[in-house]
Amino acid sequence: MIYLIAVWLLQDFVQVFLMGFFIVPNIFLMLLLMMSLLPATSREKQIILIWAAFAGGLIWDFRWTNLPGLTAALNAGLVAAACFLWYKIPAQGRTVVFFTFILIASILFSGFAHFVLWTVPSQVALRQFFVQQLLGVPLVIVFSLIYWKVSDKNV
Amino acid sequence: MNILDRELKPWLHGVISVLLSFCVLWAMITFPELHHTFVDGVNNILYYPEKPAIEMRDIVKYSSNWVLERSSLRERVTKLELENRAMSAELQKAGIKVPVPKEGNVTAKITLRYPDDWWQEFRIDKGSRAGIKEGAAVTSEGFLIGRVIRVDQNYAWVQMITSSSFLIAAAVDETRDLGVITGDDRGNLTLLYVPEERQLKNGMGVSTSLMGRHVPPGIPIGRVIGAKESKDGFMPISIQAGAHLTQLYSVEVYSGGDN
Fold this sequence. Notes:
The structure holds two protein chains of two kinds.
Chain A: H1 2-17, H2 27-37, H3 43-64, H4 70-88, H5 96-116, H6 123-154
Chain B: H1 2-7, H2 10-30, H3 32-94, E1 105-112, E2 121-124, E3 137-140, E4 143-151, E5 156-160, E6 167-172, E7 178-183, E8 189-192, E9 205-208, E10 220-227, E11 237-241, E12 250-254
Antiparallel strand pairs in B: 1-2, 1-12, 2-5, 3-4, 3-12, 4-5, 6-7, 6-9, 7-8, 8-11, 9-10, 10-11
């Protein structure tokens, strides 16, 4: 839980620092997905992580968006959907590649939902969306590497 | 047993949390005051953890813009000094005593500007403790950009001139035609209630007219850039804001008007 709080604050810190330039990628969601899909994570812990996603998203909404509940719904929904999907596929398929796929899909969906609900359609919003996704690429690689290392230890 | 089993299903918790999120969204849209309370509460809690980031951002921004800002400010100071000297000389000639100004400006940093309310409002890091009052004029680079609408001890919310609910009396500098400035929530400004027979030219300046004790007259707003189609004998005039409304980082809040 300390990691989650630290990453949430880090994301907030980076967003404050870069306010007006671009929107920071959802690092908090990436960490939640990684933690919830690790082989050692129990269902009880996944449930805690879903509610942590909800709480973190809600606080983020109160700080940064004008639609309180949107990020909360997206974070919690995506973590729950990822957990659901993860257990629906055979154990042999639960690889780093599949984790990376889930990570990319979740980040794209979350970013796109925010972009669509940006009430003033503009080129600025589109540019912000693309920059946010591009900045997310190295983070996806980093989280995939961490997942690979950590899940390797657990096996 | 079945219920206990269901309680341990992550997807079920996911569905509940999503539904709860939509309930929160509905509640916040229905009760805006509640929304403001939560927003201000969260912002107050995060004020200290975020302070280093705000300071760092300002250091980076000011150091990169320092040379440009300095030369432009020096030009403005020189111009204003010359104007001031000429006006003082005229007042002396006319035998009018110049009162010592009691008002001042409070410089504040912008700490929140919602993307979806981009042209409507933003939050600043100074409040009633710094002498900011509700209704006070807010300027950037000397141009009016909005008015304080809500004040707390440590922060305040500013309604921008580009907001459709913003209305302020304004006058065309060259002709002294009076009208009302309003926005359209999309970054455009319009001067309303100018009689259609008036011949306003592009480039004419527009500044505040006597509005209230917290908005002094004569604050520049922008320039005339064209006329729209006449309606009911009045011609809406398009105004270009003088300040760079897309690049706002810090603003000045008028703190005079007590008496």
